[in-house]
Design goal:
By secondary structure, the chain is an alpha+beta fold. Helices cover about 20% and strands about 35% of the residues. The protein is built from 4 helices and 12 strands. It has helices at about 10, 15-35, 65-70, 155-160; strands at about 40-45, 50, 55-60, 85-90, 95-110, 110-120, 125-135, 140, 165-170, 175, 180-190, 195-200. It has an 8-stranded antiparallel β-sheet, with no helix packed on it. A 4-stranded mixed β-sheet has the order 3-2-1-8, covered by helices on one side.
Length: about 210
Amino acid sequence: MFINKLCSHFKKRPRMRYTSINILIGLLLFSSKLFGQQYDFVKILPGIGIVYNNDSIILNKTTIRELHRILKINYTPNPNEFLMTMWDGYDPETLESTSGTEYTREIKFKSITFEFADETDRDNLKLRWIRMKGDNTLKIYTDNGLMIGMINPKIKEFYPLTGKRDYISENGLTYNLYKYGISLQFERIENDDLKLIELSTHLIYE
């Protein structure tokens, strides 16, 4: 079931991309210590989860309680703190319309939203989606060098293949790349440039 709900010279030298991002992160760490700026670093592992500073937050594995511990926020269990949502879409295999209900809960921390959900068990919701926007206290980047705030990144060079379930909007502002477990949201700015404003990671669907 599927519901429509992430530069050229690097292509030939992929090692340089990883080296560049490591150098950049190192410089950011050095400058933050030198000038007193405090950043939290968020590394996105598409289809797997994120590394928040030195802690791993894993899709379908990290629990709500564990998330609160990692983020150092108070955990107050409330069995009624969830939403029941209805959805509709289509089955990509049969092309027949389909619908259903599920329990969901969102936990927001800075500019990161963690979405937990399950179709039947509201007491054991699973982490299925992590959405991240720009934040002056966070440095957010993917394992292959994409960073929030980039202008006109060539997405096909970062993620060259598209699966049959992938969705790219007609205006080119939304990419849901289920094959890679990543989604991207852009905004159009002056000179018709596109700025990357949101990155998400979710489970992989081929």
